Amino acid sequence: MARAGVEVTGLDHSREMLDHLRELLKAEPPAVRRRIQLHEGDLRTARLRRRFPLVICPFNAALHLYTRHDVEQWLARVREHLEPHGELVFDISMPVPEDLARDPNVPYRIPPFEHPTAGRVGYREHFDYDRVRQVLFVSMFFEPAPKKGGSRTKKRGTSSEQITETFMTPLAHRQFYPQEMEALLHYNGFEVRELYGDFEKGPLVQDSDVMVWHVRPRARRREP
Q1: pLDDT tens digits for 138-148?
Q2: Phi, psi (5° rounding) for residue 171?
Q3: List of domains in the chain
Q4: Which pTM value belongs to this model?
Q5: Among residues 99, 120, 119, 123, which one has the least CA distance to residue 111?
Q6: Is 135 buried (19+), middle (13-18) or exposed (0-12) by CB count in 10 A?
C-alpha cells in the first residue's frame, strides 16, 4: 500500500512482528518508509487519536477475539477511528464442519516443504474444537526432514538453518458463523455493505472458505 502512495498506520500487539516489519522497511525507498507509521497496541483498547477513511483487520486477526466483550471492544475502537462514512474491511475463515469434527489424536499431514527459517520440514497438525466456546485449537508440529537427495546439510545460498528437533506452534481461532457475525455487527451499530466469499469479490457460497466483510457504522437517527 505504501509503495502505491497510500499513507499507512499499522497497529500490532506483537513487538516482534513490528520489529520484523521495520527490518523489511530498511530495504524500501525513503518515500515509502515515510508513509508508514507503526504502533504497538491491542486492537481492543488502542486509541491513536486519529481518524481514517479505511480500517483493515486482515488475515483472521479478528478470530483472536474470543468473547462477545472482545468483539464489542474492538468494534467500539473501530468506530472511534473511522472518519464519517469510513469503512471497516476484515476477512475471517468460514467454519468448516469437517475440521471441527476431527479427532484430536489423529494428525493431518502434508508432504515435506522448505520452511523459511527452519529448513526442510515435515508438517502435521492436530485439531481440537471447544464446542462451548467455539474456539478451534490447532497444534502445528514441524519436524526435521531430510533434504531432497537425503542430505540434511544447509543448502548454499539459503537463509534458513536446518532444525534438528521438532517444534510446535499453537493456534487458537474463534469460529464465527456468517449469521452470528452479522448479528454482532448489527447490535454494535454497523451495517454490512458487502460480503464476499473470496478475495475477488465472488459471492459467499456453500464451499467458500473465507468471508470478506465490508461494513460501516450506521448513521445515528436524529431525535424528532
Answers
A1: 999 999 998 77
A2: -145, 135
A3: 8-95+175-217 (3.40.50.150), 97-171 (no CATH)
A4: 0.88
A5: 123
A6: middle
